[in-house]
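Record minuted for everyone:
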Amino acid sequence: MAENEYLVQVRQLKKHFPVTKGIFQTKAGAVKAVDGISFEISRGETLGLVGESGCGKTTAGRTILGLYQPTNGEVSIDGMNICQAKPKEMLEIRRKATMIFQDPFASLNPRWTVNSIISEPLKVHKIYKTEKERTERVFELLNLVGLNGRLYNRFPHEFSGGQRQRIGIARALASNPSFIVCDEPISALDVSIQAQVVNLLEELQDKFSLTYLFIAHDLSMVRHICDRVAVMYLGVIVEMGDRNEVYENPYHPYSQALLSAVPIPDPKKDRERKRIILMGDVPSPINPPSGCRFHPRCPNAKPQCSEDTPEWREISDKHWVACHQV
């Protein structure tokens, strides 16, 4: 695929948070939340980023958008490098790339009306000149996400969780972006509402040719909405490929363990399948294990796994894995 067909390109991205101690704030290491991840997302594609809580998924999403300053590496969105962007260029990137946050209760300002919340990106990017034009756009966006436009003067506390997330989606769409990072957009919602929000995201993607980075830990939902899946563990990506290929033929032991925990609607098949129970706890990201980061918990670990960092290998067409034992 040609370079210009990729909307998002991430190269060896790192984000380390310094750790200090004592009254003089002496440096005592760093939390290696994201430690060298690379991938591309084609225009109109949805890439799912999955893994346990604390593996660095949200930090990766925020660093890609420039909400966190990268420690190292490169991120290019529609040909614009966020690591070298000047303030004016960064504003243009922020118009093209937005985010839907995980918590619909914390991501909306409780003191602002829905009109103020959704119209703020329109003011920042100077998309409309008059208040009347901005209000009309807010009406349009509310109707687009399945809410009544006449609710524009209400406050967030007057809405349910699902409705608040729809307001967050409307805000993300306000600047006509081409790329949206969906940071676990359904994890804080009731199960009955989750499918509605996912269907809405799919409809909006078809209508506006949107590109998504879909961060989640619900693996069955990821398979439903995503084209490709990247599996993340302790700040690094260990496996990536087409959703069906990864789900049906997972090669990395961590991917196999994750997928063995996905519920199956058929009770007979569910009883027959082998569950993989990982031993031990996730190591500290301040001092991650040498070699393969998964080796202390891996049932197939060999001496080489603790010594050498595994390299990316293409096992089948566009199915990549980083494991010495494959």
Summary: The chain has eleven helices and twelve strands.
